[in-house]
Amino acid sequence: MKFFFLFIAAFCSLFGLAQNDPEPNLSIETFQRPEVLQDFKLKPYKNIKKYNQGKLRFETDYDSVGNVIKTQSYTGDYIYVHEYKHKGNLRIFYKDSKITTLDEFPKDKKSESQVFKVNFDKTGKIIEGESGRISVDNVYRKLGNTYYDDKERPIKYTDVEGKSSTNFKYNRSNLIAKEYVYEANNKVDKTILNFKYKRNLVVYSETIKEKYVDGKLIDKQTSSTAIINYKRKQPVKKVFKNRETTEERIYEYDENHNMTYYSVKIYLNVDNSLKSEEWYKYVYENNLKVYSHAYDGDSTHPDGKETIANYEYKNGLLHKVYSTFNIEKDRKLEVEYFYNQHKHMIKKVHTILDINSTSIEEYKVEYF
């Protein structure tokens, strides 16, 4: 059983990153836009290097239409490298590697790499996708295959041993079911994700776990559910429930669809007591965020942690953010943003005003 869930986690990571897994992502929120919106169309990037206190920390390469084709993260002893190739909106290649910078371990200059690629016939039609690993000795080991329908959507994944598989089922353009299966000896474990839609928006999902022995169903449980309500195609309420907790999220917006309020409350199912709570309030002027107030607390710290921020703009671009927060002790933080002639951010200076501590992030941009 443990291996089954490890397989799911590993496959989800590799498949999802490599091939834009069609599973609706209900729990990760995308409404909170980054403070600085970088407009690729204004001037296409070729490469961006991020420096923190003068040290290179992150690097991203793009193709001419804005797709990320390579990222490198520098963390001290290791460099984490992700490489991608695209065909239109389809990601056809992905490679994930870890390279050590330690000279005393020459054998381990590169750890095992995860690889995913899509194979085509001479007409350009997808034959199948293939996932695998490359060892430190550059030996490739195939792990499994992904099969597609005529709309280039994944319909089935199988591992090379025939023990693990993932099946996808669609209704028109929507994924309505995703099934993980693991078989060992006379036992079969299944995890089934079902989705229901209204006007192409997910309104309900459930996760069902089933166990079979000798072809007979011996256990079936609904392990989690999600219910989502919308207004003007924006979520106004989400409720996630599993065996231990119920999580309730509330959303409010202004007439321009900007989020003005967002809250998360988590309750213990055993007694319906409040385990934790967080909320965010936003104020806008001319669709630009000028004020925010955030609170994060739980049952053991009822006073919670609060952050208040005010935003200043210059020529339509975010110029400064002043924040106060009460983590450990009251702090006052100023963040100042600098841009180049293409309105792309090239520097961000963080200053903790009450202790006069400054850190600098710099971005070196190369264009096509």
Please describe what this structure looks like:
This protein is 5% helix and 65% strand. It is built from one helix and 24 strands. The protein has a 24-stranded antiparallel beta barrel. A hairpin with a 2-residue loop joins strand 11 and strand 12 (187-198).
Query: Which value, in Å, is the CA radius of gyration?
Result: 24 Å
Number of DSSP-assigned strands: 24
What is the SS-derived class?
A: mainly beta
Helix content percent band:
under 10%
Overall 3D shape = globular
Secondary-structure element order, N to C = HEEEEEEEEEEEEEEEEEEEEEEEE
Low-pLDDT stretches are: 1-18
Number of helices: 1
How far is the first residue's CA from the last residue's CA? 50 Å
Mean pLDDT: 88
Main beta-sheet strand count, sense and barrel state: 24 strands, antiparallel, barrel
Percent of residues in beta strands: over 45%
Please name the defining characteristics of this protein:
disordered N terminus, 24-stranded antiparallel beta barrel, mainly beta, 5% helix, globular, 368 residues, 1 helix
Can you describe this structure in just a few lines?
With 368 residues, this protein is mostly beta strands. The chain is built from one helix and 24 strands.
Write the layout of secondary structure elements.
Layout: H1 2-19, E1 45-52, E2 55-62, E3 68-74, E4 78-87, E5 90-100, E6 113-120, E7 126-134, E8 140-148, E9 154-159, E10 164-171, E11 174-184, E12 187-198, E13 201-213, E14 216-231, E15 234-242, E16 245-253, E17 259-268, E18 274-285, E19 288-298, E20 301-314, E21 317-325, E22 331-339, E23 345-352, E24 357-367
Antiparallel strand pairs: 1-2, 1-24, 2-3, 3-4, 4-5, 5-6, 6-7, 7-8, 8-9, 9-10, 10-11, 11-12, 12-13, 13-14, 14-15, 15-16, 16-17, 17-18, 18-19, 19-20, 20-21, 21-22, 22-23, 23-24
